[in-house]
Amino acid sequence: MHTGSLPYKANPTLLDNLTRLRVSQIHTGLASLFAIAKAMQIECELFDTSYIEAEEIHKKFREKLIQFSPDILAITCVTPNWNKIKKLLKDELKDYYDKNPLVIVGGPHPTAIPETVISFPLIDIVVIGEGELAFSKILKRILANEDFDNIPGVWYKVKSQIIKNSPPQLVTNLDTLPYPDWDLFAQSHLIKGTLDSGPKVGVFNTSRGCPYSCTYCSTSLYRTLYEHEKVFHREKTPERIIDEIEEKYRRFQFSEIAFLDETFIVNLDRLKRIGKLYKRKINLPFIAMTRPETLTHESLSLLRDMGIKKLSIGIECGNEEYRKKMLNRKISNQDLIEKFKLIRYYNIKTQTTNMIGLPFETKDMVLETIELNKKLEPNRIDVYIFQPLPGTKMFDICVENNLFVVDDPYDLDFYFNKSIIKTEVPQDELRKLRSMFLNLL
Ligand code: B12
Ligand code: SF4
Prior knowledge:
Elements: E1 12-15, H1 28-39, E2 45-47, H2 57-68, E3 72-76, H3 82-96, E4 102-106, H4 108-112, H5 114-119, E5 125-127, H6 132-143, E6 154-158, E7 161-164, E8 201-204, E9 207-208, H7 219-225, E10 234-235, H8 238-252, E11 256-259, H9 268-281, E12 286-290, H10 297-306, E13 308-316, H11 320-325, H12 333-345, E14 349-356, H13 363-376, E15 380-385, H14 393-400, H15 427-438
Parallel strand pairs: 1-2, 1-3, 3-4, 4-5, 8-11, 11-12, 12-13, 13-14, 14-15
Antiparallel strand pairs: 5-6, 6-7, 9-10
The protein binds cobalamin and iron/sulfur cluster (SF4).
The site of iron/sulfur cluster has 10 residues, from loops.
């Protein structure tokens, strides 16, 4: 085993998106982990593939390994990056890097299928779920030259034996988290759009644990994972949120804010309290995501008074029955139309997110989604071709019904441009239908 026995120089390299994303944001999960590592005086560098051409990634990674010579590689992994990460580790660690670093992988993909991820020979540790508590303990153990037993949410290898510790623990009080550390990210992550001169956007999480359970989303997996915890949805206090934004504003002077919470409005009382402080102390335009159910005169007037620019709202499918039964989203089309009217009344822009190519979805149903978007009159429409995410109910439905048309169900297209399941509507037609959405604008 090479864990716990090496003389660690304690240099975790945090490896970001392994796909080139022209318009990407600071990864708030990694920023939180950087803060933890740095507080322990651990020297960190980021290998960030956001602005690297796909064919250059391996070469640049090799250069980074030589230049930084890390003892630990800490990797974040979403499902579409899994195969790329495996290839990178296999090609570059085995042949070009003789140091045998400790490889730790966390994020949504290992959280969904830890068994598969830890079984990959070059991976030593998998962190399931929220990473702060586990990562901090792992680093302490490394520094003390101890092994990783009894760290909740951590699976690790001793020789080839896999040790599975107890389920992960949630950070119950989010105010105890360190302020995210943005220093290792290129400043271009703050720039909105593809032009270097675009407005600067600061990204923040104010809560964790979406209270809903859509069948295609990883939230239901997370909820099951944390069944033993008393509270799943947690919120930072308004004071902490404002302080965090102010601290970052002093350093980075962004002109807009994007709140990354899955559902920004859960607790109206909290929104009121945030609203007051936000207006007085921050007063920057912002965007947020929320569930349509949460939109009322009261919540919308609060958001407007805070200076909201745009709300992003999931529609997903225009067929009411499919949306309710298959996606577990129970709002009616008529209510959606009313909600969007109400948003317009408050002069707030909207963006809808939609999926097409869902299991058993017919062409008529896709046309219903287009029709509904037409009625909602959003300012921006995002449409993704559905791909099942591991650990979700929809993934199980695809397995049960033998819908996968690929050998590897984790080989997802990063941009959700193609389907990997048997769809009622042929792929070419799906792409044509997709462009019909954009013609609505
Ligand atoms: C906002 C958001 C985005 C934003 C911003 C992401 C960002 N900059 O952080 C944008 C729009 C850019 C985005 C893009 C994508 N997203 Co997104 N996103 C989200 C959302 C709603 C919140 C993310 C967030 O802020 N979380 C809070 C932070 C603090 O948590 P975190 O990043 O997960 O990190 C924690 C843990 O995962 C863990 N961890 C993560 N990495 C590591 C690494 C190590 C070593 C350790 C120890 C721990 C660890 O510790 C962190 C701290 O607790 C989530 C839903 C969710 N519930 O998470 C989906 C979610 C993460 N996204 C998802 C997807 C699929 C994507 C895209 C692939 C889609 C696309 N092609 O556009 C890309 C991938 C981008 C990338 N490389 O990460 C899926 C991932 C599912 C999966 N199985 O992979 C999720 C879960 C939503 C879903 N559909 O279920 N996303
Ligand atoms: S509301 Fe959004 S984040 Fe919450 S379960 Fe549904 S899709 Fe996931």
